[in-house]
Amino acid sequence: MYAEERQQEILRRTREAGRVDVVTLAEDFGVTMETIRRDLTVLERAGTLRRVHGGAIPIERLGFEPALAARDAVLTAEKERIAKAALAELPDEGSIIIDAGSTTGRLVEVLPSDRELTVIVNSPPLATVLATRANLNVIMLGGRVRGRTLATVDDWAMRPLDRLRVDVAFMGTNGCSVEAGLTTPDPAEAAMKESMMKAALRTVVLVDHTKVGNDYLARFARLSEVSVLITDTGLDAGLAADLAAEGPEVVRV
């Protein structure tokens, strides 16, 4: 079993049982306890579980949301592949929404310089990067800035979306599952994401495999409301098929 496969199974067991311990995992997988500890460290850095004495618990039990800087530092290769794949969904011209987030931030970095686009964002850092691009018309949705995600939320940010109709919304999410759809820990951010999706003709979700099967407090969309879901090859093909059965085209890169 490859390390990534073992880590996915550890994460599944952690969510199912509510806790796992290092000794049992080492015995079950036939590896050393140090190997399991390294696996738990990888999963903790990805923001999917929290290490505790002798084992780990799922992050959902803590109601915890990793800060943007922490999320941006993990799964960088996967996020870059997802962002590059999302370029296929860009209109030749027109308007797009780019949600705040670490994977959507990678999309901002690779946007082509040869298209005239209006780009609407709810992230001051992303607006700052985009504003230097001569071919882009950048609209910043103002409002309260959440310190953990650096996303603008609440009524001042949401109100302009009622008057907008954009071609594509590129969205991030904390959780994604067949049962709950797309979820995030903060209700204000969920309301913002829902408004962004409603303002768009099509929605493209950028989500790495560690977030699939993870549910948080506030749902902002069902999978049937998503046009395309782009993830990485770390996601099991069977689970990808389950997601696709709910409506979206699922792309693994």
In short:
With 253 residues, this protein is α/β, with parallel strands linked by helices.
3D architecture notes:
This protein has 253 residues and is an alpha/beta fold. Helices cover 37% and strands 24% of the residues. The chain has 10 helices and 15 strands. It has helices at 3-17, 22-29, 33-45, 68-72, 76-86, 102-110, 124-130, 155-158, 187-198, 237-245; strands at 20-21, 49-52, 55-58, 94-98, 117-121, 136-140, 144-145, 152-153, 166-171, 175-177, 181-184, 200-206, 218-221, 228-231, 249-252. The strands form 4 sheets. It has a 7-stranded parallel sheet with strand order 6-5-4-9-12-14-15, with helices on both faces. Strands 1-3-2 form a 3-stranded antiparallel sheet. The longest helix has 15 residues, at 3-17. The chain is elongated, with a radius of gyration of 18 Å. InterPro entries: Carb_Metab_HTH_regulators, DeoR-like_C, DeoR_HTH, NagB/RpiA_transferase-like, WH-like_DNA-bd_sf, WH_DNA-bd_sf. Repressor of the lactose catabolism operon. Galactose-6-phosphate is the inducer.
Counting DSSP E segments of at least 2 residues, the number of strands comes to 15
Mean pLDDT, rounded to whole units? Answer: 91
Helix content: 25-40%
User: How many alpha or pi helices?
Assistant: 10
Listing every helix as H and every strand as E from the N terminus to the C terminus, the arrangement reads HEHHEEHHEHEHEEEHEEEHEEEHE
- Major sheet: 7 strands, parallel
**Fraction of residues in β-strands:** 15-25%
Structural class: alpha/beta
Shape verdict: elongated
Rounded to the nearest angstrom, the distance between the terminal CA atoms is 21 Å
| Gyration radius over CA | 18 Å
Strand order of the largest sheet: 6-5-4-9-12-14-15
Low-pLDDT runs: none
Keywords: DNA-binding, Repressor, Transcription, Transcription regulation
Organism: Actinoallomurus vinaceus
Pfam families: DeoRC, HTH_DeoR
Domain HTH deoR-type: 3-58
